[in-house]
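# nightly structure sweep
# worker-07 picked up a monomer target from the shared queue
# config: single-sequence mode, recycle default, output format = structure tokens
# input follows
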Amino acid sequence: MAEAALYDTYARAPLRFERGEGVWLFTETGERYLDFAAGVAVNSLGHAHPHLVETLKSQAEKVWHLSNLYEVPGQETLSRRLTAATFADKVFFTNSGAEALECAIKTARRYQYSKGHPERFHIVTFEGAFHGRTLATIAAGGQAKYLEGFGPKVQGFDQVPFDDLPALKAAVTEATAAILIEPVQGEGGLRTVSKDFLRALRALCDDNGVLLIFDEVQCGVGRTGKLFAHEWAGVTPDIMAVAKGIGGGFPLGTCLATADAASGMVAGTHGTTYGGNPLAMAVGNAVLDVVLEDGFLDHVRDVALVFRQGLASLKDRFPDIVEEIRGEGLMLGIKAKVPSSELLLAMRDEHILGVPAGDNVIRLLPPLVVTAEEAREGLARIEKAAEKLSAARMKKSA
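# output follows
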């Protein structure tokens, strides 16, 4: 086979999937894999969900793209539904999480500018964060491996240690526009921000005229068992970035804000060519049809409990392989005692897919429609992987 004419930016697994159905993926050769990666928390309703498929086909026969030069009815519908279900008053549609974060950052800076404080453009962020791959969002994330080789770091991002309130308070100055945090870190290793810390963030922002931005690109849209993860703490942000699960596999992101926080974003200050296109709006509305149904989030919480209890049992039985179980809802992580790449490969040999993360963690992000029976099937496959790794380690040390 000729070498693909692609950038060499991915270390791809040697798997070629032809189709999917629910929580399953099928290779070109007919092998079946349990998909607990879900496109990195994107395929919230699994593969080939009938309502999403029919909605996309129906819209495709009408109009695909219009641009934001005209009114798009689907945007009006989806924005009303999102604001009705959240803290927000205003919505800006994008194509991705990184774009949603860019909009959130610009919204916060523009807010301070419009209030007569152009000097307030700094955003405080946290170690281990991941906010995207643009020049601004890699600066916000602050991870050296993503910053290296791309020239001077974009100014205005002040990073503090994870879960360190004194350091955070010291970092907030007269130059601070906002604080940006993921309620549950994804790429950073499935670290959950405590409810008390999120409440302290809200109070700190209120006391200092600073906006609070939540990055719920990965942990939002039902992933933790609430529509959005911050709801567990009973606090609300001023601005929130959402993507991944909101499109169920179709490229869609959104920046949500209160009317006050968005007050500086007037005509001409921001824009997008594809954001809010009719195809994305149709699918986004279809995703909400399902996620907002009575009982859907109850189902997520019920299955998550089964899954987490099973993972805790694996930790007890394979202490040489599993160090810790992390995360919330159906956004769970195994912190491994062996190199996580070894456990991920062993899982793949058992035909179950996960996602690598920082801090030697494997993310388990099954579609939210996963059943308790499918969760137990996943646990059985992870157990086989752990068992084989444990046996190999014992044999090596004998």
